[in-house]
Amino acid sequence: MIIKIDKNRPLPMYIQIRDEIKRLIKEGKFNPHEKLPPSRDLAKSLNISRNTVIQSYTLLEAEGFVYSVTGKGTFVNPRSIKKVCKNPDNYDVKRFNFESLFSIAWRRFEASVMSGLDKLTSYDNFKDYITFDSPNPDIENLPIENFRNSLINSIKKYEAQLFSSEKTEGFYQFREYLSKYMLKRGIYSDPDNILITSGIQQGLSIIGRLLIDPGDTVVLENLSYPGALSVFRSIQAHYIGVPGDKEGMDINILEKILKRKKVKLLYTIPTYQNPRGSVLSFDRRKALVELSEKYGFAIIEDDYAYELSFKGIEEIPIKAFDVSGNIFYMGSFSESLFPGIRLSWIIAPKHIIKKLSSLKKSEDIYTNLILQAAVLDFMEKGYFNKHLKQFKKILAKRYEVINYALTRYFPTEAKWNSIKGGPYMWIDLPSDIDSLDLLLKTREKGVLFAPDRIFAVEDLGHSGFRLKFSNVNEDKIWRGIEIIGNILKSMLSGG
Amino acid sequence: MIIKIDKNRPLPMYIQIRDEIKRLIKEGKFNPHEKLPPSRDLAKSLNISRNTVIQSYTLLEAEGFVYSVTGKGTFVNPRSIKKVCKNPDNYDVKRFNFESLFSIAWRRFEASVMSGLDKLTSYDNFKDYITFDSPNPDIENLPIENFRNSLINSIKKYEAQLFSSEKTEGFYQFREYLSKYMLKRGIYSDPDNILITSGIQQGLSIIGRLLIDPGDTVVLENLSYPGALSVFRSIQAHYIGVPGDKEGMDINILEKILKRKKVKLLYTIPTYQNPRGSVLSFDRRKALVELSEKYGFAIIEDDYAYELSFKGIEEIPIKAFDVSGNIFYMGSFSESLFPGIRLSWIIAPKHIIKKLSSLKKSEDIYTNLILQAAVLDFMEKGYFNKHLKQFKKILAKRYEVINYALTRYFPTEAKWNSIKGGPYMWIDLPSDIDSLDLLLKTREKGVLFAPDRIFAVEDLGHSGFRLKFSNVNEDKIWRGIEIIGNILKSMLSGG
Lengths: 495, 495
Fold this sequence. Notes:
2 copies of one chain form a homodimer.
Chain A: H1 13-26, H2 39-46, H3 50-62, E1 66-69, E2 73-76, H4 104-113, E3 130-131, H5 144-158, H6 172-181, E4 194-197, H7 199-211, E5 217-221, H8 226-234, E6 238-242, E7 244-245, E8 248-249, H9 251-260, E9 265-268, H10 282-295, E10 298-302, E11 327-332, E12 344-347, H11 350-364, H12 369-380, H13 383-409, E13 424-429, H14 435-444, E14 447-448, E15 450-451, E16 463-468, H15 474-492
Parallel strand pairs in A: 3-14, 5-6, 5-9, 9-10, 10-11
Antiparallel strand pairs in A: 1-2, 4-12, 7-8, 11-12, 13-16, 15-16
Helix pairs in contact in A: 1-3, 2-3, 5-12, 7-8, 7-11, 9-10, 13-15
């Protein structure tokens, strides 16, 4: 270590020494935690008093450049050293072959999900657009004030309990409330029949892990929720799509599939299906449960939009018919409240909930309690009901508007069914129109929607697209549908 | 449908009809959504006026027993029907063979994690005990008031943004803050080098999925964090434990392993290791990074307790030496703030963060923004630093007490090393003492700790246990250590 001091300079000696050591540290001449020369030695070599060196070291310590350990000496603080890798992502990739480390499971998953399709409508990229595909809630109608109150109330009420560790199953009082809440849907449950998950996605992921090995068969509605497809892909399931009509999944075609193939799991959204908006008819619901017992497969019932009925009809969940315990029911607050809350729940027999809990535990231990308690308060105080009432009114109004607009602006070749609830409408197109082509054209005019490819379990045989209208205001609905309709007409006339 | 009315009773006719239909619904004589007889028909068959029947139906609808659809008729509301399965868990398991559906992956996982060991010390079962194994924070020293303020501030500041959908990577402003915060640890990162996860557990789970196929080899310190073991078991990894001493993992033994076996991933807690409390020495840190490049494996550095230094020394993370990008750094708020927050972060090269994001997306889409924004405010306002300062003071005091108590009450056959930070101390025992036997005895006296088996990657060769003292007050530490010490002495003298 070469420290240059100049006794003729007007700067005090201890300042000069301090500056010199600072310079050496900054230039990377020290290792982190490297010991500085003992003050006695340095004093000797510089021919100055030991106290001067001690003064310098004290200053350096006060400035955070070094630290001292009693009886051991003074050491360089790693904080003060410039690191080798200064540019955050300037790694020398030639030194390390990451490619060789990726798992086969990942490679398969990557090949199936990295389509880039989501970029076409990614909300982030198109904030000023009229987007019939935004995952965000309707900002103007959010119950922010009441939710903040519930956050404050619940922390006041439960205090440290919310900050502590919790059983994987979820906040007990919340599960207790939900088990009563589910009675309204005809489902009997104890708190121990309920597992709180970080969104429906996590519920699907752990049920998938419980039941599916690579190659096992899962059945879905053809056209289904992309998140479910992504989960079943990631566990390398074999999946089959069942076509449907306005009454939901075609049960006869399902039985044909069941006869020729051992199916372990069926994933369905019977109410306000995503993306079709259809409701599985009462008779088909009963038939589906019977088939699941006859052919021995489990059912996941994704009831994400139960609350969003705007025709006053409450559909009865499939789970309400479950006498043998093979139906996993999933509810969620993502559409009924807001997606950012990341709270859903699974209802299943207790022995199954125990197994799912141990799988969830290996994924994220448990879901934070603070938001569970806040939602509980939000429901108990009646804020949730109030919010739903208002939201359903808005939804009904928007549905009316989109219906008018579709009738007025869309060509007769485009077909759609009326819906009774939920955030989605589905438009079927003639097979000579590609919905992706349409999207690329409407995007130029500032209008977005979700093309069929995103939802396709199997080839649909024709084209179509989904319109999410729950979070688009009436004016934008009107303008957006006009734009899509005009482009569609011009495409149909060969334009 | 048999409706009995009595024209001689003093009850109005429409009330009688209403009561009869209510009775029939309650007795399960109707299917959900079943149509009631048209008012005209029922009136005719009962020989009364149609208006009377309409009055009854109107009453039933107001009470929620039926609903009417204009032009179609009146239908039974499924809510009002008693369901087949009334007892929440009274499923007829004979009707459905769930056993045949469980995945092989699940069976393997179940066999490895369902040891029942955790029940021995499960905090829920032993709330009044002196427990040196509680996952909960120190309730008396929680910054609840400030955290509540941060929740309120952040909702005021970001409003709807927090309720909306977000990129899987996490709340941008939070990642931005963390990337600056990490500079203090000598790690250079952009927000895009950071992925927010729901706890370290989720981070481990997705890194595991990215790199490990069944049978791939993972190396851990022998004695390691049980949550990591659980993740690697769940993806059916082959794992090897490396023994360590008070300077951490033995690098020479590690290299011997690397020479004979292709290793894909090494998981380490270099600072305040769980369960040993040891700190990997500076030379070993450098050697470990060199080995990872030489033998081509990735490293997960779990830096869960970085902030909990109580000797004024800040260890330099391994990640700060990373020039080839093969080190996944993980930080967490579980020990430094509280476990219920469920927030951790991964730092890695951008191309790796993208891959991990798409895996996280398939697990839970993204972590809620509300708590990310609250922690951001908590840090920005200086609450976090204030909390840490106080917490480290308490920790230092408790460490002093536990050290005194151990010296005073523990037999000389029990050995432990001094520690510089973190919540854990490790006690080595002679091989003729089984820590599980010891636990069963101290449990009878109301004292709990975590026995070696929970942390064992491979057979340890002797016995030992972990004491978590960060959340036990001085009085309880003193009494608890006395009780364990006395029982230990009596066991050693053959008692």
